[in-house]
Specification:
By secondary structure, the protein is of the alpha+beta class. 29% of the residues lie in helices and 27% in strands.
Length: 252
């Protein structure tokens, strides 16, 4: 398998494999705009030459859009291989490329988000453990920070205090999100419209800088939904999922 690195120079002609669509699609536009912001901060987006969901995205941890303390580490935003490309060892290929690149840049190791059990849009803990990763911190909502140190003396990455105890002092639904995930460009407005139609208190907080994301009240900044101050989920909501969630909350 050959891999293509997406850069400022080729981003307009390359497809974004986490949102395979036309360039004028809001999902593609929002993701590409976000990538352009991050390239100067050392972000690497490497994807399969084949059309499909097969890519890795990583960035120096001090520039990651996530509230962690992990200076000298490389943070993996996303490692995703699915569909017909799954099961061929491409996840291992991409991870090994990331490891080699990070070592060549003098990094202490890698870190990534996961949980004790597999959660949607988070790395598979079984895969991480198999590859030598271990848990170095855990937030109150069960979201874990995993790491792969390159030396025995490497310091442990950790969550910032604001993310360690996910909670906000606001009633109603509050969504924190970034444009790292392209699906937000399409579905956040859908959820906002449903909340408006049903007269449900809902506020979306679009984190538009790494500084805002690094001080967010949640370990997951791509998508974190709160209700009455309590963390609910990191699963992106489409219309059906959100309506189902509303029904569930009414019953409770």
């Amino acid at each position: 398998m050959e891999y293509i690195r997406v850069t400022k120079e080729n981003i307009e002609k390359e497809h974004i494999c986490c949102a395979i669509s036309k360039n004028n699609d809001i999902q593609v536009q929002s993701k590409k705009m976000w990538l352009k912001k991050c390239f100067d901060d050392g972000l690497v987006f490497l994807k399969s030459e084949q059309r499909g969901k097969c890519f890795i995205e990583y960035i120096p941890a001090e520039n990651a859009w996530i509230p962690i303390v992990a200076d000298g580490y490389m943070y993996i935003d996303c490692l995703w291989v699915s569909g017909s490309l799954k099961g061929h060892g491409y996840s291992t290929d991409l991870l090994n490329i990331c490891i080699d690149d990070s070592k060549s840049k003098g990094k202490k190791g890698l870190c990534i988000l996961s949980a004790a059990k597999k959660k949607t849009f988070l790395a598979d803990p079984k895969f991480l453990k198999y590859k030598g990763f271990d848990v170095c911190d855990e937030a109150d909502n069960g979201i874990q920070l995993w790491y792969l140190p390159f030396t025995e003396t490497a310091s442990l990455p950790k969550f910032k205090e604001c993310a360690k105890h996910p909670h906000i002092d606001e009633m109603g639904y509050v969504l924190y999100y970034t444009s790292q995930c392209p699906f937000n460009g399409k579905y956040v407005p859908v959820v906002e419209n449903i909340a408006r139609e049903k007269s449900i208190k809902f506020r979306a907080v679009h984190l538009q800088s790494k500084e805002d994301a690094q001080n967010a009240p949640t370990p997951i900044t791509t998508y974190s939904l709160f209700l009455d101050g309590r963390y609910v989920t990191n699963e992106q909501m489409n219309d059906k999922r959100f309506l189902k969630l509303l029904e569930k909350q009414i019953k409770e």
